[in-house]
Amino acid sequence: xxxxxxxxxxxxxxxxxxxxxxxxxxxxxxxxxxxxxxxxxxxxxxxxxxxxxxxxxxxxxxxxxxxxxxxxxxxxxxxxxxxxxxxxxxxxxxxxxxxxxxxxxxxxxxxxxxxxxxxxxxxxxxxxxxxxxxxxxxxxxxxxxxxxxxxxxxxxxxxxxxxxxxxxxxxxxxxxxxxxxxxxxxxxxxxxxxxxxxxxxxxxxxxxxxxxxxxxxxxxxxxxxxxxxxxxxxxxxxxxxxxxxxx
Length: 247
Prior knowledge:
- Helices cover 45% and strands 14% of the residues.
- It is α+β, with helices and mostly antiparallel strands.
- It has one domain (12-242): Class II aldolase/adducin N-terminal domain (L-fuculose-1-phosphate Aldolase, 3-Layer(aba) Sandwich).
- The chain has an eight-stranded mixed beta sheet with strand order 4-3-2-1-5-8-7-6, sandwiched between helices.
- Helix 1 (3-26) packs across helix 8, helix 2 (83-95) packs across helix 5 (148-158) and helix 6 (178-200) crosses helix 8 (226-241).
- The protein is globular, with a radius of gyration of 18 Å.
- The two termini are 24 Å apart.
């Protein structure tokens, strides 16, 4: 890719990832200065962007994001990525083809399900049907991801799915673009919220049958314009209210 085009692509990638981090904080998907989003720079196979350690997501800007190479070495930025971010995102970008964008959070309702014995996202509402046959589960919490082996273990658990529930920990959502990953992250938390609220009543859950779940999942997947339209609307709001995210 020509240098000028790569520079333009990198700028847009920075803006999109900064927007996703800003909006995730607005809707309660962040946790202090923890958790991390990353995005493989389009047109390259050897570099990705990731948020720096120590910055609250509400203050992230496009230029504050770190640029890391295919071996996890820092190319642009003040300090290397936070260690767990380094090993989770580095290994997923390296070995999971579907993981152009990787979003790892401890968002409350999804993490509530990961805190249950055999916690599973169930087909109990229309939002949850978006994720039919797309979720993998890692039921073996092994502590902080502080080495490549743990990142590789998570990658193996993800397999060819796009979402991984990490027992006693949180979730990883992957996508082909920032817009796709963020759309899934947002609706995944909504689906988990509804399920947790329904479970809290103590009454039996009304499950959608397999055939209907599969049909509905395909209907949702066929609407390919939804993720980009959703994310574009969110960026318009940021542009009006906090345009500094683009800086």
